[in-house]
Amino acid sequence: MDTITIKDIARALNLSTSTVSRALRDSYEINTETKRLVVEYAERLQYRPNPIALSLKENRSRVIGVVVPQIANLFFSQVINGIEAVAYNRGYHVSIFQSHESYERELATVQQVVARKADGLLISLSSNTCNVAYLRQLQEKKLPIVLFDRVSKDLEVPSVTADNFAGAFAATEHLIQTGRRRIAHVAIPATISIAQERLAGYRAALEQYGIPYEEKLVRHAGFGPNEVDPIVDDLLQQKPDAFFAASDRLAIGCLTALKKRNILIPRQIALIGFTNITVADLLDPPMTTVEQPALEIGQVAAGRLIDLIEGKQNAVTTDSLKIPTRLVIRASTKAGA
């Protein structure tokens, strides 16, 4: 089918193109009867505005770019759901890119966002990103930017994260209250902001309960497929009675490794994760975890970015917003099991 244009509608109704255009925009300059004729005819012919023409006219693409480390990660897929819901309701489309935990890929994808004339950028930094100078340059060029989940203190832009410190504190406190004292912490790479926040929460809980922090009970794992197994072997030499993993992916790796070694969970070693993936309650035993508000993070981050794009008064802040987490207790940390 040929695309119907404003000129086609004007010709059919014997009106000027400017009259049709104003009628479709519900302008007060056009009388009610003319508006009705134009709108009904446009609907009958399924007229749709040309997005390219609109973006040229408004100097806006109504597209926001989203860069995440990995879409296959359940947390990020839920965040994207939240972003898309808000963007759609406010008249924006979303272009999604992956950095695959690479600074170079991140830089290239952000350049794609800019080349495609996106109105703004939502980004969660890769584990290899230590230098955010390229984002600072874009900020200086007035590109609206909002960070989410993984952020940087070196960039003064709005950010939206889970309250990682409080979540880690609650997880560690729960293990202490169930009688555990030698709590091993399996962390994600130390360069990532959320790793630092969760480690700080873990340490604060130990300190509050008078338990000395031991460096030898903390190990950082990357994102490779076989990294957890040797870490568990190493930590078992320290005779822990609990494992707090900084992500459910790592927690499941710990679960598998402990079972392989015939260690009973939670009787010999308790286990707790961080994310609350959908299968956490289906594991054997069902896994205690900290729930991250992924959908809400996406919704709030998208709302903040669109406020920035549209110049809303409340968008000028560069404050970081931390959304509360929730401890979900299951059998993997049961006391006296």
Q: Find the count of extended strands (DSSP E, 2+ residues).
A: 12
Task: Assess the beta-strand content as a share of residues.
Answer: 15-25%
Terminal-residue CA separation: 68 Å
Q: What topology, given as strand order, has the largest sheet?
A: 2-1-3-4-5-11
Average pLDDT metric: 91
What percent of residues adopt helix (DSSP H or I)? 40-55%
Write the element-wise H/E pattern from the N-terminal end onward: HHHHEHEHEHEEHEHEHEHEEHEE
Form type: elongated
Structural class: alpha/beta
Q: Using the coordinates above, name the CATH class of the largest domain.
A: Alpha Beta
Instruction: Tell me about the largest β-sheet.
Output: 6 strands, parallel
Number of distinct helices? 12
CATH homology superfamily name of the largest domain: Response regulator
What number of structural domains do the residues give? Answer: 3
Q: CATH topology of the largest domain, anyone?
A: Rossmann fold
Low-confidence stretches are none
Radius of gyration, in Å, reads 26 Å
The CATH architecture of the largest domain would be 3-Layer(aba) Sandwich
